[in-house]
Amino acid sequence: MKLTRPSFFDEFECIADKCNYNCCHTWCITLDDKTVEKYKTFEGSFGDKIRSFMKLSDSGKYVIKFDENGKCPMLTENGLCEIVLKKGPEYISEVCKVFPKMFTMYTGIAEIALSNACPAVVEFMYREKKLSFETYEIDDVLNYDFDDEMGGNTAFCREIRQNIINLLQLEEFPLWGKEYIVSKSLKKIEELYKKNDFEAIRFEMKIYGNSDYLKKYIESLENLEPNYELKISFLQNLYAITGGIKENVLMKYYNKIISGADNLTIEEIIDIYKRFDGEILKDIEYVFENCLVNDLFYKFLIRTEKTKGLNIYERCMSIFMIQELIKFVMCMYWYANDKSINKSEQIEIISILSRKLLHNDKEVLRFCRYCEEKGFFSPAYLFIILR
């Protein structure tokens, strides 16, 4: 069986108490049945404490109730897990052991992704100039048939995804141009996939794999003047419908963003964004390229009960738009923070919004349905916020 995973996988490790926004905050901690049975055997006041915070969810599974600050009650003041400290890591729930790893199985193929919802993962997006993945044989043989909503052809979906990643990683072109071209291509591929016209899809992918064609295409796009007024209005609208980043542990970001935006005209925000683009974004464009590639690697194929109705075009468009929203949030924080934003703050903002909007299936679906209702899921709208 073949296993594919990010090349930095073995280097990743949880930063535990050094994490300012760990997964013990405002995250539903589900307890698997084996862990529940273990907790029932704990004796004394510690056993009584953990059982007092266990409750049955609507799905019939036990979860951990948050304390008044919206965090796991087993999280100590120094940011470590009391269960691990007193009993050992083998006693935490499976969901706590796994995150931010995302494991997916197909027939003859397994993939492990690392989610950008974890700041320790986003750190690698800064370290890697060009994100890469490795595939090798493993001894385990797992048989799991992936039945995607557009025909059940896993191998072909993987081929489309790899084509998109290859295009996004072409070094000679600006990221915004590559994203726009991917959206245009996927729009066509979506319709062809519904007809099972795989030959036409391969022809479409071959067109956008031609560097000379891409160069001429992007040069023609560069002649179009950006519409900053529409871009900023659109991003403000998207930020409003997501509810911002109002998390107790990181209200400093929300408060600064809101206070920074107060009493600013659209013209002033445009000037701020242009300056931020020139001073900050141009130097970390590769980071956002890596984030896009990493998100696409694990979100493009995988589907859950909540997101199974989303096709590959919608998933890709939501990732592109949310990445632009992250840039906008960074910009407003930078402005409100006396035109200053360090690497740690950038990493936290990326991981916060990745966690809130991309790692949360309910929010992904809500975001996609809103964009569809407003007609935002089109290459034309995407071009406005990219350019």
Provide an overview of this structure.
- With about 375 residues, the chain is α+β, with helices and mostly antiparallel strands.
- Among the domains are: about 25-100, no CATH class; about 220-385, no CATH class.
- The protein contains 17 helices and 7 strands.
- It has helices at about 35-40, 45-50, 80-85, 95-100, 120-125, 155-170, 175-195, 200-205, 210-220, 230-240, 250-260, 265-280, 285-300, 310-335, 345-355, 360-375, 380-385, and strands spanning about 1-5, 30, 55, 60-65, 100-105, 110-115, 135.
- It has a 4-stranded mixed beta sheet with strand order 5-6-1-7, with helices on one face. Strands 2-4-3 form a 3-stranded antiparallel beta sheet.
- Strand 5 and strand 6 form a beta hairpin.
- Helix 5 crosses helix 13.
- The longest helix is centred in the last third of the chain and has 25 residues, at about 310-335.
- The protein is globular.
- About 30% of the residues are buried.
Briefly characterize the structure.
The chain has 17 helices and seven strands. It has helices spanning 33-40, 44-52, 82-86, 94-98, 119-127, 154-168, 175-194, 198-207, 211-222, 228-242, 251-261, 266-279, 285-299, 312-336, 343-357, 361-374, 379-386; strands at 2-6, 30-31, 54-56, 62-64, 101-106, 109-114, 133-137. Helix 5 (119-127) packs across helix 13 (285-299) and helix 14 (312-336) runs antiparallel to helix 15.
